[in-house]
Amino acid sequence: MKTSVGKVFSKIVILASGIIFSQQTLASWHLDPLQSELHFITVKNSAITEVHSFRTISGMVNEQGMAVVDIDLASVNTHIEIRDERIKDMLFNVVNYPEASLSAQVDLKALNTMKVGDIKTMPLKIDLSLHDHQQKIETKVSVSALSDGAFQVNTLEPIVIDINTFDLGEGVKALQDVAKLDSIATSIPVTAQFVFQPE
């Protein structure tokens, strides 16, 4: 009798453990736009450095660990309205290409072992899609476990984007001419802070 009760108890424990494991494995998160930031840096005339951002980004990490962040290119913010309009029209061509996107496979097992306050450095392979072109990026990010199952992801160093990879050289030249600049660098450092909240 004791043996039967023990077997039943063991099965209950195993079943409960399986449910907990499944909940962790199937967890998904959405990007918190109020706590997330994406910045890029431009250099003009070989000396003048400016920091810009995008006002609107969205994204999620699904149950299989695929992370996607969508960037609304029309939300570019350079703190100068006429420059924003020129970038939207002459560089990004937002009428035909309204969004850029970042995608990466996330190590869910590593995330699920983190406790609140833990910080891990994780390698990440990112695909950046822009204007029907892609750039593959290998980098490392810092992941912090926040309360209530949320995570914060920060770039550890700027990710350098090559404008020419996306066939945007002519757009940069057009911006340079209209602003009467000697040069605009085509290598763009990008930094990010993303906060993902559990669904």
Automatic annotation (TrEMBL):
Residue ranges constituting the Lipid/polyisoprenoid-binding YceI-like domain according to the UniProt record: 28-197
InterPro entries listed in its UniProt record: Lipid/polyisoprenoid-bd_YceI, TTHA0802/YceI-like_sf, UCP029811
The organism's place on the tree of life at top rank: Bacteria
One Pfam family, short name: YceI
Name of the protein: YceI family protein
Gene source species: Vibrio rumoiensis
